[in-house]
Amino acid sequence: MDCKYFGECGACRVYENGYEAQLNEKLQINKERFAPYFSGDISVYKSLDEHYRARSEFKIWHIDDDISYAMNHIDKKGVVLIDECPQVNEYIAALMPQLLSAIKVNDIDFKLFGADFLSSSSGEIVVSLLYHRALDVVWQEKAKKIAQDLNIYIIGRSRKQKVIIGQDYITETLHVNNDVYKFKYIENSFTQPNPRVNEQMIAWAAAKFSDTQDDLLELYCGAGNFTIPFAKKFNKVLATEISKSSINAAKANMHLNDVHNIEFVRMSVEEFVDALEGVREFRRMKDIDIKNYTINSIFVDPPRSGMGEYSCKFASRYNHIVYISCNPQTLLDDLDILCKTHDITDMALFDQFPYTHHVEMGVKLIKKGL
Ligand SMILES: C[S@@+](CC[C@H](N)C(=O)[O-])C[C@H]1O[C@@H](n2cnc3c(N)ncnc32)[C@H](O)[C@@H]1O
């Protein structure tokens, strides 16, 4: 990836030795990190080496009467002004200068401090413009014109205000093995940033479950990114997630893909475990008859903070665990608990975040003695 901000911008660190060298370094770091738990080969899944991000957040920096995109500086205070970004997909890259100029021409830059882009792989884009001021009718008219001219959706956000110009979601298409899935991605909700690596993660994780007449339990399901492709491998799926907008999107995505054997429940993992243990009762569980489920497999994809002891101990009761992690450090803490009862049979590294030290890891665990 050629980036003219190499060595300055804090968003990524371009390696002089190139993408492969950096990926290999990440692999070696993680082989050593996980060696106490797994000595086999870690499968590696690469990213495109540029234009791989389908969402990105920029600051808007004001200099005299002008504005620019900006990112934090890599190793000192202050920002780097950005006029192009080779990380973002081609559609966002092409839109960035056009949008900036439309904002200036239409004079809607007053107290604008951020622009977040979310794009599908076919170029549908929703842009969130973040303001330190209330957005009035004049702003709405101008934003409407820009949205029409640039063929995008715009969300204006300020304190306690969300103005939707067009719609607040895009529809993404994912190809997993020979299947095609459609997903509604809602602005400001979690979505995987790197769609081509996401497809490889879903395919890898799905292959770790054998086809069965049993049911699957999924924790941290988001908008059903894994749930929907997994559903055909199981009789039924029970999937939980804390975010209301993600659960609503997950339900819509189930219908969009003509899948009918999933029950989505909006609950934190901790609440869900309490409900199953009978510690607390929840109205949100009233339509779920847990006795109807035969669960031997669990899939988890927690946030960066990991699962923690309570949820890991709960997950340990199931024979098959597939864990996708966006933070190897908290994964290590969780494996410390899970590997007391389970052995790791497979591990994968997904280069979801090229040119950063971050990686996404996949782990398959099977109960000891099975
Ligand atoms: C890494 S994302 C994965 C989402 C989904 N699996 C995907 O691939 O898009 C983690 C998800 O966990 C949810 N989450 C965070 N803390 C949670 C908790 N305590 N209980 C349940 N869900 C939680 C977040 O809202 C987010 O959707």
Automatic annotation (TrEMBL):
GO terms for biological process: methylation; RNA modification; tRNA processing. It comes from Sulfurimonas autotrophica (strain ATCC BAA-671 / DSM 16294 / JCM 11897 / OK10). This is tRNA (Uracil-5-)-methyltransferase. One of its GO terms (cellular component) is cytosol. InterPro entries: MeTrfase_TrmA_AS, MeTrfase_TrmA_CS, SAM-dependent_MTases_sf, TrmA_MeTrfase, U5_MeTrfase_fam. The active site is at 326, 326 (nucleophile). Keywords: Methyltransferase, S-adenosyl-L-methionine, Transferase, tRNA processing. CDD domains: AdoMet_MTases (cd02440).
